[in-house]
TrEMBL record:
The organism of origin for this protein: Parascaris equorum
InterPro entries per record: Disintegrin_dom (IPR001762), Disintegrin_dom_sf (IPR036436)
Protein name: Disintegrin domain-containing protein
Cystines in this chain: C81-C101
Keywords from the UniProt entry: Disulfide bond
Amino acid sequence: APSYWSDCSLRYLEHSLKRGVDYCLRNPPDSVYGGARCGNGLLEAGEECDCGPVLIEGAQCASGECCNSDTCQVKEATVVCREATNSCDLPEYCDGQMEHCPADFFVQDGLRCPDHPTVCFLHFTSLEEFFSSSFCA
């Protein structure tokens, strides 16, 4: 699951919020869709508390790229959870504590690509790759 918004998405969101699209976000419903349910993390009528979903005894995780689905344990910090997509991208590793892969990291813009005669620019190996991609304008 992505953990950050692109500049393009943020601009679109800001534009939409200025037009009043946030009405539903600021107008909570009287009741939760599907009715009250124990374990959904919401304190609803008739509940004293609701801790949300609970893991089985001994489990550290239940989902995510860094969760071993056979053992329900978080994978070690040496396990690659996202491969690099090009020479300007860096591989990501599980941290040994969280079940999800960390944010996608890239080589700093302006650094020479190790296997390309150009420099990295906005996570691309060349301006040609950048302009030929489906980039949000």
